[in-house]
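Human: For the file, kindly provide a plain-text protein record giving the amino acid sequence and the backbone structure tokens, at your earliest convenience.
Assistant:
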Amino acid sequence: MISDWFWIKKDPDAVPITSAKNFDRKHYPYFIDAEVFSQLDDSVAYYRRGSYFVPCDIVFEPTFLIGDRLYQLFTLLEPKMEFKGLQLYDETLNKTLPMPLYWVPYLEFTDAISEQTEVVQGKPTKLVIKSEMLGEKRILHCKLPAADIWLLSLEAAECLLRRQPVGITLERVEIGD
């Protein structure tokens, strides 16, 4: 029996980190493939914060980043996933402001997006995944021309939700043939 799967999406109410020095698409492209990941090193970048800023547990732009609080969970859920660290500092170097540690994950893309998926301008409006691609996996990384998609099995989603993550929502996806 195949259980439910969920798409990790940005909470629309989350206050984004805006880019500053070394924290942009040039240094951290939207899609992280094997070639890009191999060129990354553990590093430091600087960010600008909005008027009210609480570091989110997952950042979606300029690329997908997992907060330090969830790092161990993701390593347990998907042992094949690799990571590179990224320490963020406020561009003003104010030591009283948050200095979150994030991890750039790399997991090979899986061709799990079904042809039943409805896509507009490269982004899914209705996401359907192929049942034969799920197997015993708990995390899938997929992509469309304009969408970097991270999916969690029901078991993985429950583990994530127990940690009360900040800045994300989970959307149930359909499972097709």
Remarks:
- The mean pLDDT is 92.
